[in-house]
């Protein structure tokens, strides 16, 4: 029997907030930037991945809002995205697709679709969902996911000050594989280089619809925006197949490089950021959500490319 779950997920996303031809079925609103990733050599004992050695590589970065509506106001969406193509010397790319919430709401694709349907039943208008009420019902239906749902609710409270001030997480575990073939499970974390310890949130009053991209443009007019990349090393007891599990906070953390964003760009071809496209020196865990993302993103990519309006 063929697997229709990815189609089901995309149909549900389309029903949830309307269909926006030519756009991504999630994280539709976003802009692209040219960047350089400079590894510091600290990942070499763990991986042969070319972009994690000691030579800088160029990167294409996309910051995004999570809704499928490409016109949604920046201050309304709960999670922000940062997606990266690392350009390898051989012409291939290694991808990372991150959000600002460190864990996912379920480890099971079917449950994810059920959750989407519950959120969809709390529409307050054609293109607007009452996420607050939706989350209350999710908490009642899936009490085992309380921690993540409360983290999501927390993010809904106040809009962030800037894309440049947020932490980003690819969420899933990955295996780094070194020159001897030894595998080490890790999770990545991105941290803003110049992190302000003071309040990092704003009130939505007086914020423009596109204030996050406008803010980034202003910062890039004056200079660059940088993030540090860390890996956290798993211990034997840490699950590699469960994106709801963030692992204990005392895991060894290593700074492995820095991403510097230089300027906004306008790609002319349609780009796909696929979290399973990791390239040489990195392997995938047996994580059902991660593999389901690969299939679902392909369905979304196919649909948006077949539609009239093409977006990068
Ligand atoms: C069942 C799980 C998930 C489904 C079905 C799903 C679905 C989608 C879809 C359909 C897209 C648009 C793909 C395209 O047309 O290129 C997308 C994009 C995105 N998703 Fe997910 N997603 C899931 C989980 C996650 C998780 C766990 C994260 C957090 C790391 C995440 C972060 C993102 C980001 C950042 C984008 C924007 C990618 C870009 O910049 O092009 N998603 N998602």
UniProtKB/TrEMBL annotation:
GO MF, one annotated term: metal ion binding
Family matches, as InterPro entries: Catalase (IPR018028), Catalase_core (IPR011614), Catalase_sf (IPR020835), Catalase_SrpA-type_pred (IPR024168)
Source species, domain of life: Bacteria
Organism the protein comes from: Psychrobacillus psychrodurans
Main EC class the enzyme belongs to: oxidoreductase
Protein name: Catalase-related peroxidase
Free-text function comment from the UniProt entry: Has an organic peroxide-dependent peroxidase activity.
Alphabetized SUPFAM superfamilies for the sequence: Heme-dependent catalase-like
Keywords for the protein's UniProt record, in alphabetical order: Heme, Iron, Metal-binding, Oxidoreductase, Peroxidase
Active site: 27
Binding-site list for heme: 297
Biological processes per GO annotation: hydrogen peroxide catabolic process; response to hydrogen peroxide
Family: Belongs to the catalase family.
Cofactor or coenzyme needed: heme
Domain Catalase core: 4-311
Enzyme Commission code(s) on record: 1.11.1.-
Gene Ontology, cellular component aspect: cytoplasm
């Amino acid at each position: 029997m063929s697997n229709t779950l990815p189609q089901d997920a995309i149909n549900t996303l389309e029903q949830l907030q309307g269909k926006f031809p030519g756009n991504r079925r999630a994280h539709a609103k976003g802009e692209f930037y040219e960047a350089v990733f400079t590894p510091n050599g600290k990942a070499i004992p763990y991986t042969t991945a070319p972009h994690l050695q000691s030579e800088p590589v160029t990167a294409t970065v996309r910051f995004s809002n999570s809704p499928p509506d490409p016109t949604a106001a920046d201050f309304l969406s709960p999670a922000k995205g940062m997606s990266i193509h690392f350009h390898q010397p051989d012409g291939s790319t290694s991808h990372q697709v991150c959000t600002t919430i460190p864990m996912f709401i379920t480890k099971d694709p079917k449950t994810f679709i059920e959750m989407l349907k519950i959120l969809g039943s709390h529409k307050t208008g054609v293109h607007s969902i009452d996420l607050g009420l939706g989350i209350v019902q999710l908490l009642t239906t899936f009490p085992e996911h309380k921690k993540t749902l409360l983290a999501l609710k927390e993010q809904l409270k106040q809009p962030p000050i800037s894309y440049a001030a947020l932490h980003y997480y690819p969420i899933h575990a990955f295996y780094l594989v070194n020159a001897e073939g030894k595998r080490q499970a890790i999770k990545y974390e991105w941290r803003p280089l110049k992190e302000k310890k003071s309040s990092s949130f704003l009130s939505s009053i007086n914020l423009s619809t596109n204030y996050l991209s406008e803010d980034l443009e202003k910062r890039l007019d004056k200079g660059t925006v940088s993030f540090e990349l860390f890996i956290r090393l798993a211990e034997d007891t840490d699950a590699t197949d469960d994106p709801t599990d963030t692992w204990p906070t005392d895991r060894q953390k290593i700074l492995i490089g820095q991403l510097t964003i230089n300027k906004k760009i306008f790609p002319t071809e349609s780009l796909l950021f696929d979290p399973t496209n990791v390239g040489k020196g990195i392997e995938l865990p047996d994580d059902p959500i991660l593999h389901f993302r690969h299939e679902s993103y392909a369905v979304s990519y196919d649909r948006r490319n077949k539609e009239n309006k093409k977006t990068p």
